[in-house]
Amino acid sequence: MHTVKTSHDNQVSTTVYGSRAAATGIPRFEMGEEEMDPRLAQRFIKDELLMNGLPALNLASFVTTYMEPECEQLMADALPINFIDVEEYPAMGEIEARSVAMIARLFHAPLDNPEAEACGVSTVGSSEAIILAVLTAKRRWKEKRMAAGKSTENPNIVMSAAVQVCWEKAARYLEVEEKYWFCSPGKYLADPQELVDLVDENTIMVVGILGTTYTGGYEPIKGIHDLLVEKNKKDNLDVTIHVDAASGGFVAPFVNPDLVWDFQLPLVASINTSGHKYGLTYAGVGWAFWRDKSYIPEHCVFTVNYLGSPQASLTLNFSKSGVQVVGQYYQLLRLGKSGYRAIMQNATATSDYLADEVAKMGDGKLFHIISAGHGESLPLVAWQIAEDKPYDEFAIAAHLRQRGWIVPAYTMAPHTEKMKLLRVVVREDFSRSRCETFVRDLKETVHYLENAPAEVQKHMSKTQAAGDEGSKHHPVNTSKKTAVHANEKHSLRGKHGKTHAVC
Ligand SMILES: *Cc1c(COP(=O)(O)O)cnc(C)c1O
């Protein structure tokens, strides 16, 4: 065969797609022997990243997808900074302390004076914050039990089974038993009495969720608190509350300022929030707060040297980027309370508009809205098909995906897992105008599915019982990740087929 000689070796003038690498493919499993031109490496990776969905059209996630260019510049400048090097980069510690002070005051931390130091740390997300909170609560419980000469064998956490998966991890990693309150049809937020009834002398904390990932609802934390006060008194216990405010921490104070859920309640010992959700910072930052130092046993704190003076360190990692804390501080400074209020109120208004539009579809009979809305929940819309239809929520998600929209269809928390839901999270950048485009596409999707042949309706729907691995053929289950321990039996997913809503 005659082959045409190409000028592959002429490195200098080779174009990206005229290069040898473009013709032969790039290394996937073993590092290449040869270097690659930076232009080529950048281009090939860019091309690979095209397979990602568009963050702005990703209505599945709470995590921030928009920040101002001024802040992006600051964050890019902070890329070479290792956050943990407090001696070399003292400004990072300062910025963290200021952010902790501001957010802790937003959550009504009891502080002696306007300049008092608050008790909190930046984390990589709410997951790390929650693990730290469980760690300190477990140790505090253990020290008290040991002092009283009682068993420290069986610590437990009391919480709703609608918790985010990080709670299962925290419990498992730190060897604490999970005592669950389960949802039932129509009842998706923990019942205070039923939850508090699960508390015993081995309970290290009761969890209240400020914004569940399934319906965005706020658990009745004050109600839980008041019953726990009684229970503590009656049974001579000292059980405290942790509030998981991952997504609600920056919403409720601005949209629903009269809701009492935070350190205003004396038994609230710790709170976490995700700076990268409604804290409006790109992914990678969360915050953990404690009521005061007495809730952080010395045993959990390590001292690092900070400009010759000792600085307490409570974190699961050592080196990490300083980028996100800079980004968070920019938002706190730039937006102030009125900026956050405006954004959260807009998001709430947009989600109410979307809920109304969804409710009107199919002559007002097709869908049933499950999220509360009107500032009584996170700015999200969760809904289900109310009528008997030959297609399901998964079919709607799959068809919307063809138009670029990423909307998760999922099944409800354990014990209500037969119920299918669709959920749109309204983030800062999901403006009214973008929402109107989405409503148009949702109407078209419904029209398409109503008129599609029966085989198409069935093919696009997820017909297996909840908990089965999604059909390989279903249009939304196209990723082929290698499953490590895919058939786990230890988790809520393994036992109840819990699907964790994307967050
Ligand atoms: C997102 C979320 C988490 C986990 O937070 P990350 O910041 O992603 O680690 C925990 N709890 C709730 C209620 C959440 O919404």
Automatic annotation (TrEMBL):
Residues 459-503 are annotated as: Disordered. It catalyses: L-glutamate + H(+) = 4-aminobutanoate + CO2. It holds the Pfam family Pyridoxal_deC. The modification N6-(pyridoxal phosphate)lysine is found at residue 277. GO terms for cellular component: cytosol. Gene3D superfamilies: 3.90.1150.160, 4.10.280.50, Type I PLP-dependent aspartate aminotransferase-like (Major domain) (3.40.640.10). The keyword Nucleotide-binding does not apply. The keyword Nucleotide-binding does not apply. InterPro entries: Glutamate_decarboxylase, PyrdxlP-dep_de-COase, PyrdxlP-dep_Trfase, PyrdxlP-dep_Trfase_major. One of its GO terms (biological process) is L-glutamate catabolic process. Transmembrane segments: none annotated. GO terms for molecular function: glutamate decarboxylase activity; pyridoxal phosphate binding. Residues 492-503 have a biased composition (Basic residues). Its cofactor is pyridoxal 5'-phosphate. Keywords: Decarboxylase, Lyase, Pyridoxal phosphate. SUPFAM superfamilies: PLP-dependent transferases. Its EC number is 4.1.1.15. Belongs to the group II decarboxylase family. This is Glutamate decarboxylase.
